[in-house]
């Protein structure tokens, strides 16, 4: 009986050490819905392949949410790590690490006069209605797009505000407007949509991993190390 108790204690201590070292446990990951059809499949495939091989005792809980709710969930401790596009610049308690960046492209219906060109100047879109994600979905990305248009000499006239990039492309296909989007949206293949390079192509948008700086979760540390060792595939347009 005593030996059994000692064995149970030893097992408990071993389990505690495994948890403390980041080798077992549960890691809750949020991801932006806009990444689901573009970057996320390759990113998750890379992470799962490497992370699960190195840490088979860690269970990954994947939660779909847009950027703003991810930030709130990190503060509320309902997720441990986030994968989001264009992280905010005013967060002091969260850490961010860019995992990739990509240029913007113009999203045009095939019927648009500029769809015949290989590249477009952003100012050429000034007279076209825009289809953009609402600011509440991703404030930093939304503001970046507005700033790019402003720098090109115009304020975009937003006609539609869907909450998913695939819906943006679908509305563009119907002729309801044009859009400015991350280059990886080219993976959303619709027959009536043309993706054209923006010139000059200096502006880029980032995908980042986010975590709580003050919460030294060994599982988060392990995942960040995995990302550093095995970065995700570069998206199209790079």
UniProtKB/TrEMBL annotation:
Protein name from the UniProt record: LysR substrate-binding domain-containing protein
Q: Which Gene3D superfamilies match?
A: Periplasmic binding protein-like II (3.40.190.10)
Q: Which InterPro entries match?
A: LysR_subst-bd
Similarity comment: family membership: Belongs to the LysR transcriptional regulatory family.
Q: Does the keyword 4Fe-4S apply?
A: no
Q: List keywords of the entry alphabetically.
A: DNA-binding, Transcription, Transcription regulation
A cellular-component GO term for this protein: protein-DNA complex
Ranges for the LysR substrate-binding domain?
Answer: 22-227
Please give one Gene Ontology molecular function term for this protein.
DNA-binding transcription factor activity
């Amino acid at each position: 009986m005593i030996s059994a108790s000692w064995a149970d204690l030893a097992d408990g201590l071993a389990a505690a050490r495994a948890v403390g070292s980041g080798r077992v446990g549960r890691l809750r990951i949020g991801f932006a819905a806009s990444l689901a059809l573009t970057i996320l499949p390759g990113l998750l495939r890379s992470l799962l392949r490497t992370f699960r091989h190195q840490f088979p005792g860690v269970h990954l809980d994947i939660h779909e949410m847009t950027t703003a709710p991810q930030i709130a969930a990190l503060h509320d401790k309902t997720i441990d790590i986030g994968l989001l596009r264009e992280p905010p610049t005013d967060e002091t308690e969260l850490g961010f690490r860019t995992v990739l960046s990509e240029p913007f492209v113009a999203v045009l219906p095939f019927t648009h006069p500029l769809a015949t060109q290989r590249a477009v100047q952003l100012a050429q879109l000034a007279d076209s209605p825009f289809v953009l994600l609402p600011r509440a979905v991703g404030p930093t990305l939304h503001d970046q797009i507005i700033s790019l248009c402003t720098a090109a000499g115009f304020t975009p006239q937003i006609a539609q505000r869907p909450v998913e990039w695939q819906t943006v492309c679908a509305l563009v296909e119907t002729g309801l407007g044009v859009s400015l989007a991350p280059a990886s949206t080219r993976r959303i293949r619709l027959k009536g949509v043309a993706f054209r390079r923006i010139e000059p192509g200096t502006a880029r948008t980032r995908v980042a991993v986010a975590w709580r700086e003050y919460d030294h979760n060994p599982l988060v540390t392990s995942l960040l190390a995995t990302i550093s060792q095995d970065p995700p595939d570069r998206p199209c347009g790079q």
